Amino acid sequence: MASKPQNLLFIMSDQHNRDILGYNGHPIVQTPHLNQLAQEGVNFTNAYTNCPICVPSRASLATGRYPHDNGSWDNAAPYSGDKPSWGHRLAEQGIQVTTVGKLHYRDESDDTGFPDQRLPLHVLGGVGDLFTLIRETGLPAGSLGRKQVLSAGPGESSYTKYDRAIAEEAVRFLREEAPNLDKPWVLFVSFVTPHYPLTAPAEYFDLYPLDSIELPRSYKIDERSSHPVVDEYRRLLGIADELDEDAVKNAVAAYYGLCSFMDAQVGQVLSALRETGLDQSTRIIYTSDHGDSAGEHGLWFKSTMYEGSAAIPFIMAGPDLPRGTQVTHNISLVDCFPTILEAVGAKPHEEDHDLPGQSLLTLAKGEYEPNRIVFSEYHAAASITGFFMIREEQYKFIYYVGYPPQLFNLVADPGENNDLAGDPEYAEVVWRLEQRLREIVDPEKVNSEARADQECRLNLHGGREQVIAKGFKVPYTPAPAVK
C-alpha cells in the first residue's frame, strides 16, 4: 500500500561513524537529539554508503545510481546533473525542494534538480581534488592524515561556523516559509561536521576528558587487520605507525566533540519542526554520506570498506512510522531516491526502472526482505586499485582488483579482526559472494574504466607531474563565507 504523501525533512551529516552515536550503544558519546529521534522512529542498524568518500557518495544519493553507473569515481568527478536526480523528479511534478548546506556537486549553476540552494558548498573551483586522480603504487609517503590527527583539539573552524549558519537558515525556513506551503515539500539540510578538521568547539570537546577515552578498537599495530591495499592507504596518509596514545585520545575526543556539536545543530532544526507543529505532517530522515574510522584498525577518516568507514547511521521517523524500533535489513544510500519520491507522493519515470534501490518506507513499517544485498565501491584517494564490497545478512565480502579479497563474518566478528578469505573452509562462501558481486558489476572492467577516465582528466589539467607539483594544498573543501 502506498504511503500518504507528507513533507520530508532530510538531515545529512558528513563523515559520521554509525557506532559513535548514543542510541547505537556508545558508552560515552552524547547525542541526545539523535537519540530522541531514534526513540521516536526507526533505526536502520545496517546502513551503508555506496562509496566511502564525499563526492561519489553524494552523487549516488542524488541519482540513486552506483558510482560505476553515474561516473562519479572520485572527488574530482562531481555530480553535474547529467543523470536525473530525485530533485529533477520532484521539480517536474511541482514539489518544492530547498537545500541548505553541503551538496558537493560541480557548480551551483548546473541543472542538478535543486534550483533553491541556500548556503551551498560545492567542489573547489568546479573541479575538485585532482590529487585524488593519482593512484599508482610507489608514491612517496604522505603526512596529511598524521597532521590532521596531531592538530586535533578545541576551537572553532570554518566548518563549525558554517554548520551554525546552516542550522539557522533551516530553522528560519521551517518557521517562516514552510507553514505557508500548501503541497508536500522537501527540506534537505546538510551539515559538514563531524568531517575533519578535528577542531571541536570547547564546550563539546570538554565533554570528553582524555581519561574517559579508550584507545580505538584494534588500534595498536599488533592488533590491526592487514591487507596490502589498506596498508598502502595507511602509509600514504602517514598513519602506519602508532602515534602517541595521548595524541590518539585527543583526536578521538575532538571527533566525539564534533559529533555532539553536530547533534546540537540537528536538535535546533528538529525543535523548530516541533514548535511549528509541522512534525505532525513531516517525515524525517537522518543519515551521513559515509563514516569515519576514528582510529579503528589504525585508520582515520574514510576510504576503506571497514565498518567504521563504510557503515552509516540511518534513522527515519514520522507520524505514520513505528516508534522506537530497529530494522536490521541492509540498506544503502541508493535507496534514498525511491524513498524520497514515495514519501512526498512523486512518481518515478520509466527510465528509473533500473535503479538498484527501493523505497524504505515498507521496510520501516516491518516488511521482511531476507538476505538483502548492498553494494559499495571505491576508486578514489589513496587507493592503489579499485575495490568493491557486498554485504549480506552474515558476511561482508571485499574484492580488490589484482589483490586478495577479504571476507568477514560480521555476526561472529563485528570488529573485523578475522579475515576468512584465505581459509579453505570458506572457499565456497568466497566463490558464492564473488558471483553475487559480479551480478552487479564487472570489477576488472570498471576498474579499467575508472583508471582511463582519471588519466584523461589528469591530462586535461596538465598531466600527472603538474598535478603532483601543485600538491595537495587544501585537505578539505573550504566552507563558503558566512556571517
From TrEMBL:
It comes from the Bacteria. InterPro entries: Alkaline_phosphatase_core_sf (IPR017850), GAG-degrading_sulfatase (IPR051849), Sulfatase_N (IPR000917). It holds the Pfam family Sulfatase. SUPFAM superfamilies: Alkaline phosphatase-like. CDD domains: sulfatase_like. Residues 6-345 form the Sulfatase N-terminal domain. Gene3D superfamilies: Alkaline Phosphatase, subunit A. This is Sulfatase-like hydrolase/transferase.
